[in-house]
Amino acid sequence: MPADDRSVDGLIGLYLDVLAIERGLARNSIEAYGRDLSAFAAWCAGRRIAEATALDRVSLEAYLVHLHGTGLSARSRARAVSSLRGFFKFLVADGWRQDDPAARVKAPKAGRPLPKVLTQEQVGLLLAAPDPATPRGLRDRAMLELLYSSGLRVTELCTLQLNQLRVDPPVLLVRGKGDKERLVPMGPAALQAIALYCEQGRPLAPAARASAWLFPGPTGVPLTRQGFWKAVKRYALQAGITAELSPHTLRHSFATHLLEGGADLRSVQVMLGHADIATTEIYTHVSSQRLHDVHRAAHPRAELRRRPADEPTDPE
Fold it and tell me: pLDDT: is 178 or 78 the higher one?
């Protein structure tokens, strides 16, 4: 590149060379910067903006509007802003520009993806998948019932000990993140499945008889998170569930179905063991039908829908 080349393409190339040679960035990082900045250079060329010194904040914001119009995700647009900020900081530091138009450009919030949840029908199919005629099937059904009944993390479930179980009232003393303890209620279906496993499954599993763990594996030690999750995926396939699953799918379903059933957010927060209620708020994506029902039951103007046809209504 000529020493006086101030073109957008030329300075982007120089910037990428600096990242590779002087700063030693990883190849993948440089390629990511390159893709973002090449797209920006192409946009500039389409608007006949030849030199990087001709760009201002209005130009950059117009580019972000363009990216939004292409349907690019907020996360990808935020990454593009990060690439532009790095590029313009370089231009200022290297003396190509006196000002930094990207410094005050706001990146879109990437947001947090909504959790994947199963329908209540899918949960029922998954819970019924383990074979209750085998000790392993009894154990796995009890684990699945408890996972859905109490919203435990998979690690919390796998490391439960017998002395953490309380029958009257039916609750679990759970040790969660940061070794914090919380009491979590158990539903009757989960309690029944655990009782059946303890009465019929554990006595037939030699390693489980003397184990202090509630759900030990074949050697008497707790199941690993990975081992249990492989079993869940196998049961989902067996039940014909094609929805995308994660280790926390039943936990997500537990929270979502509670809220859909009318539970308050604070109670769900306590049961999940979230330190911040903002973390629990992600589960408030209740069904549109429930929102519609709540609105119809609570809003005073909803009565307008049920007025007789000849009854006058407000002009507004």
Answer: 78
